[in-house]
Automatic annotation (TrEMBL):
It is a multi-pass membrane protein. This is Ferric-rhodotorulic acid outer membrane transporter. The keyword Isomerase does not apply. It comes from Shigella dysenteriae. Its main location: membrane. The keyword Glycosyltransferase does not apply. PROSITE patterns: TONB_DEPENDENT_REC_2, TONB_DEPENDENT_REC_3. One of its GO terms (cellular component) is cell outer membrane. GO terms for molecular function: siderophore uptake transmembrane transporter activity. Belongs to the TonB-dependent receptor family. The gene is fhuE_1.
Length: 84
């Protein structure tokens, strides 16, 4: 069995937008995303892997260029791989 994970850190970012009504600042504070996985070799040729992304279900923005797009919430996946 193999177990692993990672942490992705994003520092604070902001963008200023100038409009006829003034300058507005959109800001995203710093955040960390934690991902985990485990892989199990069932047979010589077949393995199963499970992934969890955004383990703590952190709400964050992925784009600050004129629009705000929420990042992916916590999600899971299971993958089977057969090698021959």
């Amino acid at each position: 069995m193999t177990v692993g994970g990672g942490v992705n850190w994003q520092n604070r970012v902001y963008t200023d937008t100038v409009t006829p009504y003034g300058t507005f600042r959109a800001e995203q504070g710093s955040y960390a995303l934690v991902d985990l996985f485990t892989r199990y070799q069932v047979t010589k040729n077949f393995s199963l892997q499970g992934n969890v992304n955004n383990l703590f279900d952190k709400t964050y923005d992925t784009n600050m260029e004129g629009s705000i797009v929420y990042g992916a919430p916590r999600n899971f996946s299971i993958t089977g791989t057969y090698q021959f």
